[in-house]
Automatic annotation (TrEMBL):
GO terms for molecular function: ATP binding; magnesium ion binding; succinate-CoA ligase (ADP-forming) activity. Substrate binds at residue 264. Pfam families: ATP-grasp_2 (PF08442), Ligase_CoA (PF00549). Residues 9-55 form the ATP-grasp domain. InterPro entries: ATP-grasp, ATP-grasp_succ-CoA_synth-type, ATP_grasp_subdomain_1, Succ-CoA_synthase_bsu_CS, SUCC_ACL_C, Succ_CoA_ligase-like_bsu, Succinyl-CoA_synth-like. It catalyses: GTP + succinate + CoA = succinyl-CoA + GDP + phosphate; succinate + ATP + CoA = succinyl-CoA + ADP + phosphate. Its EC number is 6.2.1.5. GO terms for cellular component: cytosol; succinate-CoA ligase complex. It comes from Selenomonas ruminantium. Its cofactor is Mg(2+). It comes from the Bacteria. This is Succinate--CoA ligase [ADP-forming] subunit beta. Heterotetramer of two alpha and two beta subunits.
Amino acid sequence: MNIHEYQSKAVLKAYGVAVPEGLPAFTVDEAVENAKKIGTPVVVVKAQIHAGGRGKAGGVKLAKNLDEVKNYASELLGKTLVTHQTGPEGKKVGRLLIEAGSNIKKEYYLSFVIDRQTARVVMMGSEEGGMEIEKVAAEMPEKIFKEYIDPVVGLAPFQATRMAYNINIPQPAIRKATKLMTCLYNAFVGKDCSLAEINPLVVTAEDDVIALDAKLNFDDSALFRHPDIEELRDESEEDPKERRAAEAGLNYVNLGGDVACMVNGAGLAMATVDIIKHYGGEPANFLDVGGDSSPEKIAEAFQIMLDGGQAKGIFVNIFGGINRCDAVAAGIVEAAKIISDDGKSLPVPVVVRLEGTNVEQGRKILQDSPIANVIMAPTMEGGAEEIVKRVKAAK
Ligand code: GDP
Ligand code: MN
């Protein structure tokens, strides 16, 4: 789960991380009022959306007086901000963060993430702050430093100090930087985060060290331990398809492409996404229907994939173990009944590869069904190739 920058900063502040003074605003009047309360010569008006890249997209404005605050707030509230992280459709700004301006001397990068290979929390730092870390990793990997943290010991003081020196924090700010690292680590562990990213971390002209931006992601499986975090959920920021799928007990992740797939089992679902890509297609989603596939559930999965016209083709890839192929086939027939008036067609071609329990019955259900655009595929490779070809032909 993601939360907004202003919420992340409030969480971090409670752990002792230095953040600028700031207040959220939902209306222009509130923005002006909060700017008055903050009262510094410069306040920053920041669009709050669940995506980065706001600076470059015009979502971060420096206001020198209350008139400017008013103008920027009116401009940003309600605006759809398109950044390199939002996708072309952008995200609508419903909230602002009004923050005291900082006297930035230099920007740095600092984050904690979970490293799968070592099964540890890793702290990453760089003196190339403000730019995307993926870009730093690609262009100057030697500028990224890592510290792997022993879960029993926690972030050791020598690791924090080594990081501060590695990323060239100026001498008078070293202790403030290591303190911030420790507090950020405590927040990461205390709130079961999967990511805590400060980009930029800044050293100010006064040699203070502050988190100018803050992004926290939380492990969904641990949210039950943090009702205070769960409360911060902003449903308007979440993908409506992902929300609907979660309600139906489906494991769905929108990947933005146009070749949809419906698979059973996370491993096979990942392999299916890969093989679609291998044949030159752009996967629309990851979708694991799980072990119990009632026809109703399959029909719901079809509706989610087809909703909004994103999918130009669907690849059904089922290896029935616990799942029964006949139930999946019945689900596809059910979906066609719900989606089209006559139950005889689906809006996009559907390539089906069925294998496993009750496969003969499943194939027969589809062959006997009146749906026109269902194509049976004998193999996974053949099915992937076929659906990519059909989606390309449709474009
Ligand atoms: P992002 O683009 O979505 O990651 O948003 P950030 O919060 O990182 O802001 C982008 C950039 O705006 C930062 O890298 C800073 O250069 C600038 N910025 C943000 N807050 C301030 C501030 O208080 N003062 C100044 N001078 N610049 C700021
Ligand atoms: Mn940032």
